[in-house]
Each structure stands twice: as structure tokens, then as C-alpha cells.
Amino acid sequence: MRTAIAALVLLSAGADAQTDRDIFAQRALARALDDRCSLFSDNQRLALEGAYLQARGDLLRAGYRADRIDHTYDQITRNAANQPCSSDATLAIAADIRSAFAGWQRERFQNYAGAPNPWQASRPYGYDSWVISQTLPATEHPLRVGLYNTEQVHALTIAANLTSQIAAVTLHVRNPDLAPALHDPSLGGLLDVAGMPAWTDYLPPAEGKTSFFPASRWSDEDLAYFRFSEEALAAFARLDPREAALIEAFDAQGNLVTSQYVGIGDFAAALAFVRSSPVLSAGR
Q1: What is the torsion angle, in degrees rounded to the nearest 10, for the CA atoms of residue 269, residue 21, residue 66 and residue 72?
Q2: pTM over 0.70
């Protein structure tokens, strides 16, 4: 049980010797015990949630079925129900994670799985800055996508070069309530789909998607920033780590300038890393 410290120390020597399934099981057990016993503070819980989501994403990318992963979590939860909150095993898990969390809070930067590039996450500073981002590698109209921190308020943001003449953007994501299953327009590779990136099989469906428009826009000397609502951020973060969202960008006349996909990856885990920052209240 004491190996649950790997829930937060992602690159520890102990984690190197473990399988993805082992690491997921440890994080799931700590999460299940906390749900029942309230072992951790809000920020500790956020960090553990991020580590759990990262482990779940690793299993999905390794080919494990989502329903199998969820069934495993249900089994772990049932086992945790038989472990007293005051038992030595439970207290040891709690102590290990609290100890690991102290080191976790000192981390300023982390990279998380994303596509076509990793998500680069950093703790918020005292000035406006990107706290999660990746740049989509379009040669003519590159877009920067992620979480932008303005006065310690985070918003899903897309930025474009001012020289691109992009005046508006739209974000399209699968709505799991309308389309519970991942959407593979290629039918497992049987069909060629124009514009489909090589790094994913799963795109927003034509039916069962939600489209978001920016809540505000501003610019600096280089970039135009399009800021989205909390609802858009929540919808983006809850998507499956294997799928993509679609960004469409338009000029002032409403002409389509570029269409680009961004992979969800471990964005939700990166979000937990940012939100567990010691300079912010949990969940801010």
C-alpha cells in the first residue's frame, strides 16, 4: 500500500518498475479512500485527481477499453469500502500522498500528453500568462490553444497571429450527453477522411457536437486572443483523452481561413496541476 506515493511522484524510481495498471490501481485506491474518508485537503485532492486522470489516460492510450477501466475502478472502490478509515494501511496511504504533495507543490512546470504536441503546463505567476498551452503546427496560420491566466482567473483561450487576419474562431467538441460513443468517421480506417489528423481516429461528430463561440476578444502587439466561457472549458476538459476538438477560424468577412484539430490528451490532468497551485484557492 505504501507505493501509493507514486500517485503524485510521476517520475519516481518506484513508478519506473510498475506497470500502467499498477499505477492506476494505486491512484484509484487513494481516490476511493478519500471519497469515503476525506483524507486530503482541497489542493491535495486536486493533485491526486490529476494523477488519477493521467493514469487513466495512459491506459486508454495503451489500448485498454474505457468500460474495462471503469469496471476496475468500481472493484477498487468496493475493496476500499472494506478498509477502515483509521486502519494502518489507510493512514499510510494518506501520509505518503501528503508527503509527496509537498514536493509536488514545488514543481513549476509539467508536460502532459497532448496532440499534435504535448500540453505545457506551469503554475500561475503574478502576471497574465499561458498556464497550459500548445501551438498547432500549421505553417500558414498557427494557433495557440490552452488555458490563459488573467488576474488569477483561467479561461480556455485560442490565439492567432495578428497578421493572419483571423477575426473570429469557433470551437467544436463532442457532446457526450448527445453522442456517448467516440466518433470515428473513417470507420476504423476503411474510409479516407479529408483533413483527418494521423494522431487520432476520433473527431467531433456532425450530429451530437456542441459549438462554442468566444465570450471576449483582445490583442497585444503580436496575437489576437479569443477567450471562451467556463462552460466551454468544462466541455473541453471532460472529453476523452484520445479524441480531438475542431477549431475553425474566419476572417472579418466570414470566410473560413483555417480548420485545425487539437487533441484533448491529458488536458484535464494539466488543469488539476494548475488549479492545485499553492498561490490559488482550490478550484479557482
Answers
A1: -110
A2: yes
